[in-house]
Amino acid sequence: MIEHTPEETLRAAIEDGTVDTVLVCLPDMQGRLVGKRVTGAYFRDHVVDGMHACDYLLTVDMEMTPVPGYRVASWGLGYGDFSVRPDLATARLIPWLPGTALVLGDCLDQDGRELPHSPRAILKRQIARAEAAGYVVKMATELEFYVFDETYESAAGKNYHDLETAGWYIEDYHILQTSKGEPLIRAIRNGMEGAGIPVESSKGEWGPGQQEINLRYASALEMADRHAIYKNGAKEIAHLQGKAITFMAKWNDDLAGNSCHLHSSLWHATSRAPLFGDESDPRGMSALFRWYLAGQVELAREMTYFLAPYINSYKRFQAGSFAPTKAVWGTDNRTVGFRALGPGSATRVECRIPGADANPYLAMAATIAAGLHGIEQRLELGAEFTGDAYAAADAPDVPATLREALEALDGSRILREALGDRVIEHYLHAGRWEQSEHDRRVTDWDLRRNFERA
Q1: SS3 category, 323
Q2: Residues 74 and 166 in one domain
Q3: Cα–Cα distance, 327 to 341 (Å, whole number)
Q4: Do strands 218-219 and 135-148 pair parallel, antiparallel, or not at all (unpaired)?
Q5: Of 242, 266, 303, 354, which one has the fewest beta carbons inside 10 Å?
Q6: Could you give the CA distance from residue 317 to residue 311 in angstroms, rounded to a whole number?
């Protein structure tokens, strides 16, 4: 396995011609990688200290529309540049792209300060808060996706209708069916390993052609970086094999959605010992764990926008679908929003609310902020939910729509204090734009329902 390439190794690879192209990237508001392809020699001589990019990159929507109304970048401000400073700790070779390395960067203003609305900066601030309290945050994400016997071009040519999934029956844990897709999935697993992104396993999921590849847990920033590179890389590898994959939260009315279960735990900043297990507790939970989980449960509705950022995200929250509808916690219960897992050093929270469309930096930042709130206030953890949470009429709901999630975030004093008012307003603006863009569109559902009969 090729490990992370530090600055000296990357320079050597450029010098000996192993690397002729460096992808200098930043994660945008959607969690996508955007940036430039830079020649190896130019990176070595110039870009290693910084690269300019248009500041609209942290204000555009999924279609790259210059969205009006932001304070930080607009036509009125001239859409100038910010600087992207490479974080050389993220440098790695990209085995599926010949002669290519990749490095992620931080977005800086003209005075060299990190832009507060940059997703990577938002996460780094919450990690710093945890470190100041004596904790290292470790996280892992489980991303699900559908594989199609289509190219991205053929899928677009069909207007995304009548697409052929790579399989025709639910393949959860199936070996035979997943063997049919192994050429692609193996290429993704091995590609990630070669890029310094360790993989645990892959498996079929609860839909035809649906897969899950689990990455090994890591510190929060490293995990978010791996997540972003993995999503981009999986799409690239699929394209190279003439396939298409989607991480949409819900691509089909009748099929399971794509989840991104988010695991988190706290470790001692000095001893690096795990802090969530307690053998003396009947449930094996330390007080710290209970406070941390209580904070997430209390702020579940307020942070949902950062876990489910699009109209489509909320179509995944359906009863009996393995996606949660209730903001409650339970031990090893897949019907709740927060699943407590263990034992011992493996004790952790699995937040089941995020979809595979979530921006990992924002989802992790909100999760840490909620957990730290619980710890700071020493919140009492409510009663564990047992049984089928889908049937619990009196349990608090996960927001059912983007509008509902935006309203909850807007009124969150705690998240405004943790993330900053300007950050919250920046992302509320993004969410409201997303909602308004959807509201003015005529959908296939509208036409089928009303064209003749209205």
Answers
A1: coil
A2: no
A3: 17
A4: antiparallel
A5: 242
A6: 12
- Phi and psi angles of residue 39, each rounded to the nearest 5 degrees, phi first: -65, 150
**Claim to verify: residue 57 and residue 201 sit in the same structural domain:** no
Pair (97, 190) in one structural domain: no
CA distance readout (Å), 155 to 21, 160, 163, 432: 30, 5, 7, 28
User: Is 101:94 a contact under the CB 8 Å cutoff?
Assistant: yes
Q: What is the pLDDT of residues 70-96, one digit of tens each?
A: 999 999 999 999 999 999 999 999 999
In 146-281, which residue ranges form alpha helices assigned H by DSSP?
A: 152-157, 176-180, 182-194, 220-240
DSSP category for residue 181: T
The length of the chain in residues reads 454
Q: What is the per-residue pLDDT across 354-369, written as a single tens digit (0 to 9) for each?
A: 999 999 999 999 999 9
Q: Which residue type occupies 263? A: H
Which DSSP symbol is given to 278? Answer: -
Contact between residue 5 and residue 86 where contact means Cβ atoms under 8 Å apart: no
Q: Where is pLDDT greater, at 357 or 1?
A: 357
Distance between CA atoms of residues 120 and 143, nearest Å: 19
Q: Name the domain count of the chain.
A: 2
Nearest to 333 by CA among 264, 255, 388: 388
Q: Give the pairing type, strands 100-108 and 21-27.
A: parallel
CATH at 383: 3.30.590.10
Longest dimension (CA), the chain: 69
Asked whether residue 379 is assigned to any structural domain, the reply reads: yes
